[in-house]
Structures
1.
Amino acid sequence: MDRKNISCAKANANIAIIKYWGKKDEKLKIPFNNSISFTLDAFYTITKIENSSEDEFYINDTKQDEQEKTKIFNFVKNFRSDFNQKIKISSYNSMPTAAGLSSSSSGFAALTLALNKHFNTNKSIDELSRISRLGSGSSSRSFHTPFCLWKSDDDINSIGTKVDSNLDLSMIIVIVNDKKKEISSNQGMKMCVDSSSIFEKWYTQANIDSLKMISYLKNNDFTNVGKLMESNTNLMHRTTLFCETPFSYLTYKTYKVIDLIKQIRKSGLECYYTMDAGPNVKILCKKEDSYQIYEILSKTYPKDKLILSNCGKGFEVWSE
Ligand code: ADP
Ligand code: DP6
């Protein structure tokens, strides 16, 4: 068989239940506050790397523009010592790219793992999480499942670590818009750091929230996990409204989903909402209730806009 020696990796995306929103060091991507995430089985990236005559970068078989290519190949420098060793990177996202559905988290985690394999750098998981953070902050949390804490610390210690919990949860994603967002997460959080009048309040509260969340997870207290996730989400999104030029990632369609979640909750089924830098809504619930909640949602939303996901099983690395 013709073996081309392709280095491959698969990583799950993660959704923050305590949000990362703001860098105190832009270059090193050190956040102002701790964040905590839940990994998704249904949202992932598979990245394949092979030697080539020139550097190339594809997502879902589409050649990426010069700006994206430059960003990615600057990141490759963390692993490649011989610049003459050109590579082709072919990556596949299971979710829409750059639509607030966390493609950057699985995208950079899978790229980090595949580069580590391709260049035989044999780095530890802590080191891979640290390097991945330099590509995209949230990706540092894709190395542990199902719950991961990313600490706001110095360069070496600002990495993902596993959070203990026996909660068996699922997430239902309601896609109200799968188009690329106009303001990237990176730009949006920078606008908030630079001019939101409630930014200090946000990160001070988020750090308090992260400690509470760790304790709720450890105590398997789903009700408080869900309530805290919602209040943390709401405060994060409020920061955008208090910028010099206010903006919002949320739309009328987002609020319609939130209304439905509140109704479902009133009917006795526990579920809670969160949104990232985009209008799509992620609903956290117990795995045992997930199918029933999915069925209720499917009376209002078409099934191709609803994704029911269990927690991610962890990353994989292999050769082809
Ligand atoms: P999202 O909400 O999907 O995470 P972001 O705006 O935060 O969107 O990040 C999108 C960026 O993440 C892309 O512009 C690209 O740089 C990076 N990205 C997405 N998918 C991949 C991938 N498969 N491999 C490498 N980088 C990726
Ligand atoms: C709202 O990790 O995509 O999803 O570090 O600039 O690449 P960069 O940002 P990114 O931001 C994610 C922001 C968020 C919240 C979260 O995932 O914690």
2.
Amino acid sequence: MESVDAIKKVIRTIPDFPKRGITFKDITPILSDLALLKASVQYLKKPFEDQNITKVVAIESRGFVLGPMIALELGAGFVPVRKEGKLPRETYSVAYDLEYGSGRIEMHLDSILPSDRVLIHDDVLATGGTAAAAEELVERSGAEIVGFTFLLELPAMNGRSKLHHDHTIHAVVQG
Ligand code: AMP
């Protein structure tokens, strides 16, 4: 299997995208290489394979690429968390701070039961604002959050500090 180093090597750093001052990490070269794609999914799910995960919750939009693959590997269902106004039925809804202004994410009320064991996934953990909002959504459902799995963590942004300490926080690559 491809190494974590091989995955790390193809992540591209793009300065001043999408705005000046933001250093964007482009993970798409991992997706277009079958061996790296397969290895990434294996590394993402590894710490959770014996944890009886029943739902993988992933965040719009880049969490939707690998989230369902992780769910299939773990034998779990997939639940999308979407930006405000996109889900057609009754939702849990949480407001969160973005770099400029604020946003809101939502999850269908009946997509998770209190008996579920949940793994939350996104591609990148940066400031942690988005993941913390997703954590709050799942907490409202009464389900148990087992942990988080990210492809890339940007430790300089200290996103971990926004998440509750009793959850396992796993990142395949540190950037
Ligand atoms: P966060 O600051 O942790 O709330 O990140 C918000 C979302 O934006 C995450 O879902 C990431 O996918 C994405 N994101 C944030 N910062 C970056 C970055 N530097 N490069 C690529 N994606 C990012």
3.
Amino acid sequence: MHAEASSPHLPTPSATPVFIARGLTKVYKMGEVEVHALRGVDLEIYASEFVVLLGPSGSGKSTLLNILGGLDTPTSGSAMWRDHDLTHANDAELTRYRREHVGFVFQFYNLIPSLTALENVALVTEMSDQPLPPEEALALVNLGDRLNHYPSQMSGGEQQRVAIARAIAKRPDVLLCDEPTGALDYATGKLVLEVIARINAELGTTAAVITHNAPIAQIADRVMRMADGRIASIERNAAKLRPEQISW
Ligand code: ADP
């Protein structure tokens, strides 16, 4: 047990909010039909914090994460990353924001099949200012011995860990993960969560992980439950668990 890691008395890893959202709404217009994906979301996420976004399918989790990651913009309200206004940024500004500050991990790994693990990661580090060496990023996800494997030669969990190595190799400030275990079996999913939790703990990378799997919320500092486009509750975990301590 990591007694110190599960103390309810520990303060938030940092009291500095990196994300501040106020009154976020998102309306998708599908012909005549309007889909209200977000109906007024207020939140703060703090530096080095580990947040889990929980909620049923369709509750707005991906829409919220995409706005925080600069992949989408809200219909109204405001979203700030430090002093970057994500609400009024143009495409070029959002692209720069994503490139410099955000690592994404999705349910599907989106690796380039004709490139090895090392080459998939190196592709990203070539575009970054102070990247981790690709070998180091892959070692961090326990794939130091799979550098020259192609995606087709790796399991789903290994491919997801390459995707995580790729996301962290540019030393992002935030790691945004949308159902990172969604396509993985139980044991492999746990391994991937362990990697994300370790990166958050060791590199201090602020992490937000979407899941519809309630027990996974136990590994977070705070849990935001979404329902019908709103944040229904925000709770701090009194005892944050390590992924190997949970089951679902
Ligand atoms: P979750 O991640 O919780 O499953 P989403 O944010 O993906 O929820 O979706 C919220 C709502 O917005 C859903 O009703 C979904 O169908 C709708 N939605 C999401 N993306 C789009 C889109 N690009 N166009 C139209 N509707 C969308």
4.
Amino acid sequence: MASSNKHLSSYSERNLTDISKKKFALIVSEWNSDITEALYMGAYNMLIKHGASKKNIIRKNVPGSFELPLGAQWMAKQKNIDAVICLGCLIQGETRHFDFICQAAAYGITQVSLKYNKPVVFGVLTTNNKQQAYDRAGGKYGNKGDEAAITAIKMMGF
Ligand code: DLZ
């Protein structure tokens, strides 16, 4: 699926829902932290740009992307949280570890979203190498953290 030239960072920003009173939880994986910090800054700045209040953006770290679903669940179950954004970076290694973690993170995040009936966004890069990750964390293909924030806002206006 060729998606490198399509990104939400450049999508229409008109008619987005009012998020000035909405509360967000950003769950950030510490693996490949140079990448996930860039994703976090992208998501954070995008939420602020669209009217979120600093006090309504809560950050929680987890050790790796495998832990994102549980971190997301702990936050999503809190009634005052309106949306959760999961940020991680998985880079293909020499073993099948990558596949298992990708599957677990994607499935787990989906389950949390459906269980708590609120947006829980999959802002997780799954790349073959570090360069592909840099390209998508503020590089030539935009910042997937920005896109994760826009996705949350769009789903809140559903
Ligand atoms: C173990 C592991 C490996 C090999 N690679 C990554 C990675 O590229 N990105 C990531 O977010 N996490 C990785 N992890 C850590 C797992 O997500 C998890 O934290 C551990 O398996 C402990 O449950």
